[in-house]
Automatic annotation (TrEMBL):
This is TIM barrel protein. Residues 76-255 form the Xylose isomerase-like TIM barrel domain. Gene3D superfamilies: Divalent-metal-dependent TIM barrel enzymes. The keyword Manganese applies. SUPFAM superfamilies: Xylose isomerase-like. Residues 367-399 are annotated as: Disordered. GO terms for molecular function: L-rhamnose isomerase activity; metal ion binding. One of its GO terms (biological process) is rhamnose catabolic process. Residues 367-382 have a biased composition (Basic and acidic residues). PANTHER family: L-RHAMNOSE ISOMERASE. It comes from Horticoccus luteus. Keywords: Isomerase, Manganese, Metal-binding.
Amino acid sequence: MTPKLLRRAREALDSFAIETPSWGFADTGTRFGKFFQDAAAIDLNDKLADAGEVNRVTGCCPTVAVHVLWDFKAGDDPKRVAKLARQHGVQIGAINPNLFQDQCYKWGSFGHNDPAVREHALQHCYDSIAIGQAVGSEYVSLWFADGTNYPGQGSIRERKAYFTAALQACHEKLSAKQTMLVEYKPFEPAFYHTDIADWGMSYLLCKKAGPRSKVLVDTGHHYSAQNIEQIVAWLLDEDMLGGFHFNDRRYADDDLTLGSIDPYQAFRIFHEIHFFAADRGRMPKIAYMIDQSHNEKPKIEATIQTVLMAQELYVKAALVDHAALRKAQAKNNVVDAELELKKAFFTDVAPAFAAWRKANKLPADPLADHRKSGYERQAATERKRRRQELGIVQGGGYA
Ligand code: PSV
Ligand code: MN
Ligand code: MN
């Protein structure tokens, strides 16, 4: 790497942080089953400890997203939870209300035709926003399983109106520090229509809700051939991109580790962000988050693997020579334009990572360091014993 590229890589590394999901450390799997791991986190303390271990070895995961019903018990003091996080070297990140688990949501949450259920969902969102304020979190991250399974089942327009009103009501409760992220997903669990099925619907609802509402792009929530980086470029240009849920997939919402299938796609997404920043002279504020569920891989290892991949692709995308790219674009030189992206993608960034880790007193090889630390073995022994003592049978919970 030239000194210029090394400097650009170092700047990218200094500015990049990605949030780990608390649910990625617990026993999750597919809707058909789960394969349990002794080292899987039992409670929020375990999840925060695991997130702390990921941050210890990678140095770029200071925050942890929480899912309110999975992580908070009735009567939990959010301030105590924030303190617990700090004890593990992390902070509480995005607050995810749960609007799909309760039996009352059979016909929807914000989209339900019964005002009492909509009110119940709204109250849960208000509580989640208040938790966010108490723990000092910047983001409330909303995903809705709402939709219908059969043609004619519900009024799509009526449900849209319910969503518009409820999101506006949520927006009113936000503090000046909070941003509300609205996630979309084309299908699952609803298979005929999903109320917020794509970025356009999310965009419209955010616009109507208010200025502190932005779109959340979950990379797994698109049809296979969709050009996700184009969506990212459009949202950036409209100042409506709020954050990401990163994962990879072969088919649909597979929640596989990032870059395991198509690292070039994540690179292209990061490229759009760096290209935008170069044009505007400022890096947009984006919440980079992971949303993955690991049924086979050890959970902490899978998370470290994902973080390292995200970091690497973010750095490589920062190396694109924008002046050369612009020049090639101006001449409609398709080959050279494409090669500018390829050149950055195939750059060996190992020297930049080695220097950055050394400067930040981080392990040279985060995954190897985690393995050597014995953390996983110790967690497995201790958590297995604790499960037996508490009579906990592994299982339960949708992910
Ligand atoms: C739904 O598929 C989703 O992507 C939402 O972000 C949920 O919060 C998360 O997965 C749960 O794993
Ligand atoms: Mn998601
Ligand atoms: Mn998902």
